[in-house]
């Protein structure tokens, strides 16, 4: 419990330290707290007054620049001119709900659906990934008659009441709701035993049996296909295949949460599930979909949608409005035209190699893993014992911030750096980051 | 049951009628259905291919114009140049989450909070009204320890799983969830007996007792302060005061859903609850807040937020990003600078007088009611028996559409025209609408 609380505070601003700040920053923090109070979440021991951003760079109120390796929403680059222009143009033309026909909305739906396996041919547009996952849970319940879901133990899937229930990382210290079962994340760093796919399928199988025996019934397995909040687990490609087969045998649905890995970040394809050679029953999308314009979505099969729609009149006022669709189209255009999937693959590989290379001189680097520009750097006190070192992660994050580099942490111990820069990240950007990690680790842990 | 189904189809496109359409429209409808299937909701027996909009006017793909009396999201006028420019400017500058400090976000929070009674001094920004109500329910549950909510019988509060549970109109024919109690909407047209405020408080009191006796406990009363989906009930001002007093006596919270009446539409104040002289515990906002940019919010007291935040780590990625805040600021500016609250009051009164006046020659006009530019026109077969006439409402809506006027229906019988034009609606616009209603009613019901 105590440990959990510490982890959560890792990357976060600590309210008790306001008095140590310079006057301008203290005023800004106090101003924020006056309006947003305990619901306010701020990054860093010294929060940043951010003012503008462009490409991979963000700039604070004093003009200091920061290389962004944290933000996975502005995925094609901050303030991308093509996305901004698409938003401006459509906002000045028509911004209304989808109860009228509109070519922009239908074009976007067709473009997006064409990126999925043939089975996944229907779409519901929402405003957020949370709304998408909230809807996915209900579609799965109606389709299966079951009410139970299996998720990984440090999963995060969003912020609505229903989705918070299946997001253990958002409910620290609280008992699991009766309809939720957790399984260990599929990882080979701390438990490099046996076949990962088989092992993961076995734990999910046990959870399904438990749901069935409890009378709650099994509705589905919901996973972020790169297990971001669990600590980022991408390899070996294909490890999800056995569990998807099992889920179908047990009459449940496989829901691929692509809110984080989706839209090319893994460097292998547009969707994270593609690396595993599986076809989900439901795919949910969000964050990078509109490069910051609020838009999310659920893609699924017609039959599943029909059964849900027969019970509930679902409508989403802002969901998939023409401005969201225009932003979404611009994002798909930029990903294609700028070769961002290939860039994510190439630069992601370069970053991982570079981090592994400095790992030769820093025993605190326990593991470097990921796919494309979704990378985890796990920090340990002892590489053999693999003792998690959240305190090193915290120091690294805060010192990198002071060197003008933004990065966050993930995983159950909060000791894994979560590296997710805009997909236009370059080799030079990578060199700057790797060198800074090297230097800061030298400062923190002098040999 | 049958009746309910009919009502729901009233304003909606009927899929079985596709073959009767002209080729271009049929293609567009079939295209929409191919991507969105059974989750697609379209208006009118002949849906409209909408292309652009400006002020109170919308234009279809063939350049036909429509006077908009339906859309309450583009509340300061479609494509308002000041809002579009605010969005463009901020989207090109910085569009990120609120874990950094940012002056635009804090300025908006302060401007918005200044519009509430002093007690309501804290804010959570979300992307939609649904997310806002979803959060409000959880805040109320944590604060009271109760799990039960009281809502009106045709209420609609949004689309998440938790909010759909408290939205009877979104769950036609389904049994109420165990933690939800419904009460009749507070209205004086069909049941003009006794004191409305006292009567409404009494039914809510009965529902609270029932929740308490069932062991579920009472968390709160959630109402749209103009009862839009119930059929629009605004008068007499103050009728909510007794129920709010009662809710507090019974240790529950009063949640004012301002998603529809908020931001000046009632012509009396920025907030619908203000007409009733009450102070809510929680206020939820959405639709018109960003004039179409997806933004919503929860305003409440610090103590209530603290208790919730201690249990759940809530964060909303897109919620209140600087672009949403810039759009929200522009909306508040335009409402003030263009005197839109006063215009809603003045033109709303003019519309209601005009409709009452034509009511002298159309016995089908059973009631005209509302506040500002949120007006209900209830259609009946027989003014004395008050027999609901959804078939007349449907004909009126579809014929007005063919005359270039957009309007929708509401209420348990679907026989109440829901009149909610952009707040920049003029006397000339009103004259056009009133004359068209007069003429169409003459066509439908020749005397």
Automatic annotation (TrEMBL), chains A, B:
<dbReference type="InterPro" id="IPR049704">
    <property type="entry name" value="Aminotrans_3_PPA_site"/>
</dbReference>
<dbReference type="Pfam" id="PF00202">
    <property type="entry name" value="Aminotran_3"/>
</dbReference>
<dbReference type="InterPro" id="IPR015424">
    <property type="entry name" value="PyrdxlP-dep_Trfase"/>
</dbReference>
<keyword id="KW-0808">Transferase</keyword>
<protein>
    <submittedName>
        <fullName>4-aminobutyrate aminotransferase</fullName>
    </submittedName>
</protein>
<dbReference type="GO" id="GO:0030170">
    <property type="term" value="F:pyridoxal phosphate binding"/>
</dbReference>
<comment type="similarity">
    <text>Belongs to the class-III pyridoxal-phosphate-dependent aminotransferase family.</text>
</comment>
<keyword id="KW-0032">Aminotransferase</keyword>
<dbReference type="InterPro" id="IPR015422">
    <property type="entry name" value="PyrdxlP-dep_Trfase_small"/>
</dbReference>
<dbReference type="InterPro" id="IPR015421">
    <property type="entry name" value="PyrdxlP-dep_Trfase_major"/>
</dbReference>
<dbReference type="GO" id="GO:0008483">
    <property type="term" value="F:transaminase activity"/>
</dbReference>
<keyword id="KW-0663">Pyridoxal phosphate</keyword>
<dbReference type="InterPro" id="IPR005814">
    <property type="entry name" value="Aminotrans_3"/>
</dbReference>
